[in-house]
């Protein structure tokens, strides 16, 4: 079980560096494994995915390519990051995301200014991968429990963690090369609650589907 968790965490750390079709394939392969060890219920994970897709679609329709906007939903709370050209745009972006079904709160961290360059975004992707890899190397908590988003060297941390895990994650991120600032938006719960959530996730991963019902017998037609 420990090897499976570690493998999932390592692959999760590598995912941000993958692009194009490779990303789609890798995501499809790992989503089932990662979902099994996620502290969010499956329904919440599904809601988070839907929130991201709907918000991204609405923002693309409204703002097109003039802004660089990223939407990350975790436990139905949404981090909005990236760049936009005006304060009015930033406000409107927040309103649009808040209006998406099932959104329970937002962190509007959009920076008002020119969009970042492709090289800058590549650097951010690399920083995210380094932070995730250091989470795994530290062995202090499961890297799958903390989501990392990096914008212009600013690292945002999301997740459902206890105080010990939160402090470790912040310290590791803060001391990673290339990180300018760490913004902690993790949801901190008690140690007993994280144990309960982990137990539920383990039970979910070990649950076996119910056997298919045997087909009803088919009577042979009566002889004539």
Write a structural description.
This protein is α/β, with parallel strands linked by helices and 224 residues long. It contains 7 helices and 8 strands, in the order αααββαββαββαββα. It has helices at residues 2-14, 20-36, 42-63, 87-98, 118-138, 163-174, 191-206; strands spanning 68-74, 77-84, 105-108, 111-112, 146-151, 154-162, 181-184, 187-189. The strands form 2 sheets. Strands 1, 2, 3 and 4 form a 4-stranded mixed beta sheet that branches. Strands 5, 6, 7 and 8 form a 4-stranded mixed beta sheet that branches. The longest helix has 22 residues, at 42-63. The radius of gyration is 21 Å and the shape is globular.
Tell me the strand percentage band.
15-25%
Distance between the ends: 61 Å
Helix-strand category = alpha/beta
What's the helix count? 7
């Amino acid at each position: 079980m420990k090897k499976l968790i570690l493998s999932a965490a390592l692959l999760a750390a590598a995912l941000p560096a993958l692009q194009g079709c490779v990303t789609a394939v890798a995501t499809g392969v790992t989503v089932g494994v990662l979902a099994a060890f996620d502290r969010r219920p499956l329904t919440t994970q599904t809601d988070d995915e839907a929130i991201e897709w709907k918000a991204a679609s609405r923002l693309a329709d409204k703002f097109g390519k003039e802004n660089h906007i990223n939407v990350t939903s975790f436990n139905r709370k949404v981090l909005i990051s990236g760049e936009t050209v005006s304060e009015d745009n930033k406000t409107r972006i927040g309103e649009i995301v808040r209006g998406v079904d099932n959104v329970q709160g937002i962190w509007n961290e959009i920076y008002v200014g020119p969009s970042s360059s492709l090289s800058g975004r590549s650097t951010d992707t690399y920083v995210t991968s380094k932070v995730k890899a250091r989470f795994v190397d530290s062995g202090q908590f499961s890297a799958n429990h903390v989501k990392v988003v990096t914008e212009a060297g600013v690292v945002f941390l999301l997740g459902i963690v206890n105080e010990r895990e939160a402090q470790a994650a912040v310290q590791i991120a803060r001391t990673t090369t290339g990180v300018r600032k760490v913004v902690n938006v993790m949801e901190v719960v008690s140690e007993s609650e994280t144990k309960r959530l982990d137990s539920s996730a383990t039970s979910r991963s070990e649950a076996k589907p119910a056997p298919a019902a045997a087909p009803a017998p088919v009577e042979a037609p009566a002889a004539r």
